[in-house]
Design goal:
Blueprint (H helix, E strand, L loop, with lengths): L1 E9 L3 H9 L4 H4 L3 E6 L10 E6 L4 E10 L3 E9 L3 E13 L2 E12 L2 H33 L10 E2 L1
Antiparallel strand pairs: 1-7, 1-8, 2-3, 3-4, 4-5, 5-6, 6-7
Amino acid sequence: MGKLHHEIKIDAPVTKVWRVLADLEAVQNYNPAVAKAHCTSPVKQGVGASRHCDLKPKGWVRERVTVWEPERAVGLEVTESEWPIVFMRWRTDVQPDGSGTLVKQDFEYQLKFGLLGNLMDALMMRRKLNQGLNDIFASMKQYIEYGELKTPQAAVTTS
């Protein structure tokens, strides 16, 4: 199983950061890999809410909320995709940090194909996922702070 950790400080209050994270369709505004997102469940927030994301340049993914702690944490998991994964899930926590917000995310995944999947992860997937998450965090910071996307240049801490 692969595990990644990312964190970034966003110069905005927790309430503003949470508003973006709590809007499941807003992911299309800050995730460079998402072309379009829409809710697929009757509820748009809370545990059990779900979304469908069309990806760039092609593909799709369906995700479901598994953790919902208003202004504290949201967790999601992939429920369907074209990716060679057994599972993919993450929890994003927000906490006040001076006049801004510290956003932390723990991300777990497992590829299909047993030993071959482990080799693919070591040679390529872990690095690609890590870079993709860095880009998402930098874009989210830009979107929340400035309301628009520019070239991501935020400092993201990873492990």
